[in-house]
Design a protein that fits this description.
The chain is mainly alpha-helical. It contains 9 helices and no strands.
C-alpha cells in the first residue's frame, strides 16, 4: 500500500461513518495481520478525542494503535523495544503538534470551527479529514521510512 492509498482508504472509511480512530487503525490492520473487525471494535470509543471527551485526537490515537500493531510484540521485560515504540508514539504526536499546534481534539476544534459547526457535524469536513490524512501520512513515514 502506498502512502496515498493509505490516506485514501482512511478517508473512505471516515466518509462511510467510522470514527477517526477507527478509520486510521482499520486502514493498517491488514498490514500487520490483524483482523479488521477486531480493530474496528477496539478503536471505536477513541473517536471524538476519546468518546467525545475532546482529549487526544482520535486520528492520532488510531495511529498510536497502529504503532502497537507494528511494534508491540515484545515481552514484559523488553524495555528497549518498549522505549523504541514509545519514541515512535512521541515522534508521531510531535509531528501532529508541529502541523496543528496541538494533538488535542477540543483544541483543534476551537482553532478551526465554532460550536454550531460542531453541532451540525460540519467539523468532519472542515477539520477531521485533514487531520486524518496528516496522521496517516506521518504514520506511514514512521512505519516505512525507506519508501
Amino acid at each position: 500500500m502506498t502512502k496515498q492509498e493509505a490516506i485514501d482508504k482512511a478517508l473512505a472509511y471516515f466518509k462511510e461513518g467510522y470514527a477517526c480512530s477507527q478509520s486510521v487503525a482499520m486502514t493498517f490492520a491488514p498490514e500487520f495481520g490483524t483482523d479488521v473487525d477486531t480493530v474496528k471494535m477496539i478503536s471505536a470509543p477513541f473517536g471524538g478525542g476519546m468518546g467525545r471527551l475532546r482529549g487526544k485526537c482520535g486520528a492520532v490515537t488510531g495511529a498510536f494503535m497502529v504503532l502497537g500493531m507494528a511494534t508491540g510484540k515484545y515481552g514484559p521485560k523488553d524495555m528497549d523495544t518498549k522505549l523504541a515504540q514509545y519514541k515512535k508514539v512521541q515522534d508521531l504526536n510531535a509531528a501532529i503538534v508541529g502541523i496543528y499546534g496541538t494533538a488535542e481534539c477540543g483544541e483543534l476544534l476551537k482553532k478551526k470551527v465554532n460550536k454550531e459547526q460542531v453541532e451540525a457535524r460540519d467539523h468532519h469536513q472542515i477539520v477531521c479529514t485533514g487531520i486524518i490524512a496528516d496522521a496517516v501520512a506521518v504514520l506511514y513515514d514512521i512505519l516505512y521510512p525507506e519508501k
